[in-house]
C-alpha cells in the first residue's frame, strides 16, 4: 500500500486498527492509533531492512557492530515518519481519522534503553551510519523497565517502574529462532584430542538470550540498520515437579533469576549482589552478540569484514569472549585468534577521571566467568610483559596492568586488546593521550584517535525548531 499519500496512509492505519486491534477508528483510543501508526511504518522499515542486509551480503561490505549498554533513542514515531519522508502525510491522515497528531506522538513513551550522553551518542551514531548507508547493527539489552519514572511526593523523589514496552513494544520484532545460550559459573574441563585443546564447560547456569530487533531508519535513503536487543529467559521456565508439589515460588525461581538480567538498566552496585548482576548483564549481551556475529562469519579474515565498536568499557568482555569463541569453538591457535581480535575491536572512552574507570573484583570474575577469566589472565600476562619490556619501571607496570591487586581493569583491557581508542571531542582525546592514558599512548601512539561526536540535527533542530531549521536551510 502506498503510504506517501494522505488517503493511502489513512487506509493503512484503518486496516492496522481493524486487523491488529479489532477496532474501527471510531472505537480506537490514542494508544491504539499510536501503535497502529508504528506498525504501518515498521512494515516499510522491515522490508527495507531485508533489502539492506541482502545488499550487504551480496556486495560483501564491511559491517560495523556497535555495542553499548544503553541507547537513548527517545520517541520513534515522529522521528521515523520524518526520516521516511511521510511526516506531513501521517499528521494529515491522523487528523482525518478524528485524532490530534500531537496527542498521538505524545502517547508514545521514550524507549527505556538509556539515560544519558553515552546512550544518546550511541543513538546518534546509529542514525548517522544508517543515513550514510554504512552497514551496521547496534546491540544492547532489552530492558523491561528501563531505569525508572520519577515522581515527587511530599518533596521526595519516588521511583516507579517504567513499563515502556506496553506501548513502545510496537517497534520490537522478537526473533526467537536466533536465540543464543549464555553460560555463567560452573567449572572448565580441558583435554587434548588430535593435537587440539578442547574446552568443556561443566555445571554452568544457562540463560537464553532472545533477540528483539528494532529497525533504524536513515534520512533520505532506503538503507535501514537493526538495533538488536537481547531479552533474558530461562531454558526451564517452570520446574513442573516442584510446581506439582505446591512449591510455586521455588518452581519459578530459575525463571525469575534469569529474567532479572534484563529487568533494569544500571542496578545499584554498592553491594555484592548488585556487582554480580551488573557483570552478568555485561557478559550476557556481549556473549550473545559475539555468538550471533561469529555464527554468520568466523573465518580467519573476520576482521576484514567486521569491526566491533565498544561504547565505553561496559562491553569490554567482547575481547576475551571473541578469543574464547575463536579458540574453543573455531579451533584457532592463540596467535591467530589474538590477531583477529586485536584488529576487530575499537574502544570509545567517555571517562577522563582515572578513578572512575570500570574495575571488577577478580574473585567475582573468576567465579562467574571461569573460562573468560582464564583468557583474561593470559592476555594480562602477555600485556604485562610488553609493559615491562618497554618501560622497565615497576610503577608503570602497576598502573598499566590489566589484573592487579585483586582487580580487573577494563579500560586497560580495552587498550591492550583493541586496534583503536578514541575520545568524543578533540579536547577529550588530548586528555586521554596526555593524562589518563599517557603511558599507554607512549607505548602505542598509533592506537589513539579522535572522533568528534556530533548531534542528530534532524531530531535536535529540524523537529524541535522547524522555523530556525527553515531559516538555516534558506
Keywords:
474 residues, alpha/beta, ten-stranded mixed beta sheet, three-stranded antiparallel beta sheet, 19% strand
Q: Sheet bearing the most strands, described?
A: 10 strands, mixed
Query: Structural class of the helices, strands and pairings?
Result: alpha/beta
Distance between the termini: 34 Å
Q: Uncertain segments of ≥5 residues (pLDDT<50)?
A: none
Residue fraction in strands: 15-25%
- Number of helices, counting only DSSP H or I runs of 4 residues or more: 22
CA-based shape: globular
Summed over residues and divided by their number, the pLDDT gives a mean of 92
Q: Tell me the helix content.
A: 40-55%
Return Rg in Å. Answer: 24 Å
Number of strands: 17
How would you characterize the overall build of this protein?
The chain is globular. Strands 1, 2, 5, 6, 9, 10, 11, 12, 16 and 17 form a 10-stranded mixed β-sheet that branches. The chain has a 3-stranded antiparallel β-sheet with strand order 13-15-14. The mean pLDDT is 92. The chain has helices at residues 6-21, 30-59, 77-84, 87-96, 101-107, 117-131, 165-168, 240-244, 248-251, 253-260, 272-296, 302-305, 318-329, 334-342, 362-368, 370-391, 394-400, 410-417, 426-436, 438-443, 457-463, 466-473, and strands at residues 63-67, 136-141, 149-153, 156-160, 173-174, 180-184, 187-193, 196-202, 205-217, 224-233, 306-311, 345-348, 359-361, 403-404, 407-409, 420-423, 448-450. By secondary structure, the chain is of the alpha/beta class.
Amino acid at each position: 500500500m502506498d503510504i506517501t499519500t494522505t488517503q493511502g496512509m489513512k487506509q493503512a492505519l484503518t486496516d492496522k486498527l481493524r486487523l491488529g486491534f479489532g477496532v474501527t477508528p471510531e472505537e480506537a483510543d490514542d494508544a491504539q492509533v499510536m501503535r497502529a501508526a508504528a506498525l504501518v511504518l515498521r512494515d516499510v522499515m522491515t522490508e527495507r531492512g531485508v533489502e539492506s542486509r541482502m545488499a550487504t551480503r551480496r556486495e560483501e561490505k564491511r559491517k560495523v557492530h556497535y555495542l553499548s549498554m544503553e541507547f537513548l533513542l527517545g520517541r520513534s514515531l515522529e522521528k521515523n515518519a520524518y526520516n521516511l519522508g511521510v511526516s506531513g502525510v501521517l499528521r494529515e491522515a491522523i487528523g482525518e481519522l478524528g485524532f490530534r497528531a500531537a496527542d498521538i506522538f505524545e502517547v508514545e513513551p521514550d524507549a527505556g534503553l538509556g539515560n544519558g550522553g553515552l546512550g544518546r551518542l550511541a543513538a546518534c551514531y546509529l542514525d548517522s551510519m544508517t543515513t550514510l548507508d554504512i552497514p551496521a547493527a547496534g546491540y544492547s539489552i532489552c530492558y523491561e523497565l528501563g531505569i525508572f519514572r520519577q515522581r515527587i511526593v511530599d518533596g521526595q523523589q519516588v521511583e516507579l517502574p517504567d513499563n515502556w514496552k506496553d506501548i513502545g513494544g510496537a517497534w520490537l520484532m522478537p526473533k526467537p529462532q536466533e536465540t543464543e545460550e549464555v553460560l555463567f559459573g560452573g567449572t572448565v574441563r580441558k583435554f587434548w584430542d588430535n593435537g587440539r585443546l578442547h574446552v568443556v564447560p561443566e555445571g554452568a547456569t544457562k540463560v537464553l538470550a532472545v533477540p528483539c530487533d528494532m529497525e533504524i531508519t536513515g534520512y533520505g535513503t532506503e538503507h535501514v540498520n537493526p538495533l538488536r536487543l537481547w531479552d533474558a529467559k530461562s531454558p526451564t521456565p517452570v520446574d513442573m515437579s516442584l510446581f506439582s508439589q505446591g512449591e510455586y515460588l521455588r518452581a519459578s525461581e530459575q525463571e525469575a533469576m534469569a529474567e532479572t538480567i534484563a529487568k533494569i538498566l544500571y542496578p545499584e552496585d554498592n553491594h555484592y549482589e548488585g556487582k554480580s548482576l551488573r557483570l552478568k548483564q555485561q557478559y550476557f549481551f556481549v556473549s550473545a552478540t559475539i555468538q550471533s556475529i561469529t555464527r554468520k562469519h568466523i573465518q580467519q579474515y573476520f576482521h576484514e569484514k567486521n569491526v566491533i565498536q565498544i561504547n565505553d568499557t561496559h562491553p569490554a568482555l567482547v575481547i576475551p569472549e571473541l578469543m574464547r569463541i575463536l579458540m574453543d569453538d573455531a579451533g584457532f591457535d592463540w596467535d591467530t585468534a589474538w590477531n583477529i581480535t586485536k584488529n576487530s575491536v575499537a574502544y570509545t572512552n567517555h571517562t577522563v577521571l582515572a578513578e572512575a574507570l570500570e574495575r571488577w573484583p577478580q574473585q567475582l570474575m573468576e567465579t562467574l566467568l571461569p573460562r573468560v577469566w582464564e583468557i583474561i589472565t593470559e592476555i594480562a600476562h602477555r600485556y604485562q610483559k610488553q609493559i615491562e619490556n618497554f618501560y622497565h619501571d615497576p610503577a608503570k607496570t602497576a598502573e598499566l596492568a590489566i589484573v592487579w591487586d585483586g582487580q580487573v581493569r577494563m579500560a586497560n583491557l580495552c587498550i591492550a586488546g583493541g586496534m583503536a581508542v578514541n575520545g568524543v571531542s578533540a579536547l577529550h582525546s588530548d586528555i586521554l593521550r596526555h593524562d589518563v592514558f599517557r603511558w599507554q599512548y607512549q607505548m602505542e601512539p598509533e592506537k589513539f584517535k579522535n572522533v568528534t561526536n556530533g548531534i542528530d540535527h534532524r531530531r535536535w533542530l529540524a523537529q524541535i525548531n522547524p522555523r530556525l531549521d527553515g531559516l538555516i536551510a534558506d
